[in-house]
Amino acid sequence: MNPLDNLVLNTDSYKASHWLQYPPRTDGTFFYVESRGGLYDSTVFFGLQAILKSWLARPVTHADVDEARDFFAAHGEPFNEAGWRHIVDTHAGRLPLRIRAVDEGSVVPVHQALVTIESTDPEAYWLPSYLETLLLRLWYPVTVATISWQVRRTVAQFLAQTSDDPAGQIPFKLHDFGARGVSSAESAGLGGMAHLVNFMGTDTVSGVLYARAFYGEAMAGYSIPAAEHSTITSWGREHEVDAYRNMLRQFARPGSLVAVVSDSYDIYEAIREHWGKTLRDEVIASGATVVIRPDSGDPVEVVHTCLTLLDDAFGSDINGKGYKVLKHVRVIQGDGINPESIRAILERAVGAGFAADNLTFGMGGALLQKLTRDTQKFALKCSAARVDGRWVDVYKDPVTDAGKTSRRGRMTLLRHAQTGSYRTVPLPDDALSLDPSAIEAGWEEALSTVWEDGRLLRDQSFADVRERAARYG
Description:
By secondary structure, this protein is of the alpha/beta class. About 35% of the residues lie in helices and about 20% in strands. It is elongated, with a radius of gyration of 26 Å.
């Protein structure tokens, strides 16, 4: 057995001692997940289903418990062996939990409950807390999906202003190059998949595979043949134009796309002389669209200059909104890209009369790695415990940081059917959900049970997740 696959060991060390720390006669706990603020005022909820399928679908075994017992004995922590044996013997290793969550793809304002977790066996009251380490990693796909969604909103704004086909253009305007810049293969899979909620362009193979494995999407993302610096510079500086010509001969076909990094030596000379003169007729005759990739310098200045030089060489059409659309060529900028620089580049390009159609962006580390749990201040907290048969509020209210005050009591989330606004409201003791008669007109419960006692109750498709996120955008 790989110890990294043991659910009982997928926790923080001190969690192993917590079952001894609750008040006597505790037989139930209730936890919730929330973004307590952060960089953006809303988050795109995504990724819980992948975590549940990946980790909670396999029942815990006595072998898992044996391994955890031996580990914690050597590690210096007590271990609730009897509690885990009870789960294996009584529940066949399936965790006695109920997890309710908002629909994946929903865009929810911060400071609202996104997920609730509660134990369904009085003897496993300690279990929701034990799984905090695993379940709170939800912060990562949610935050990536949120960053990607914010970029989509920005690009959509400029497409609406300058493009004759905004809906057709948007799916491939942000390309994920982040696989090499993340900390692990799992991060590439989760983060790459989260980006694909909003776009369809990616070089992160893991993200496509995760969407297939956990959301049933056969092919969630696409790519095109593209050069890297080594495949250009291996020809030598004196044969740079031959390297470009080889890209045309290998990949340029009518209707195809091929991307060629062109800044190995002098991006401006490459456009003026190689692409704009020597290879111009070959580009046009190929029927392909050649995507020129600058990869150094000030992104705003470089992209603007590249667009201008390509316009001089290949010309452009004026679309129905009065903006230039380059003939035969496009530009992709992947260096120095983040949500702020994307807006700055588009503002400069559009100000110079170019439609947003001419540009595609690539993000790597800024999309999948330049973020933390505190980007959106995610927390998983206990808000209620059942002690002596009565639910009591559980909360923290530190005098040194009001931003860390937690919610109290059992709760659920409501959504207004017309306005789309959300609010977190109390849930009656021991109720699974609100009685419809107790909900104000126009509001509906936004949380539903997605996992209960070891079984996935709602298997959401990637298409539905995408549609939901796009609707909010």
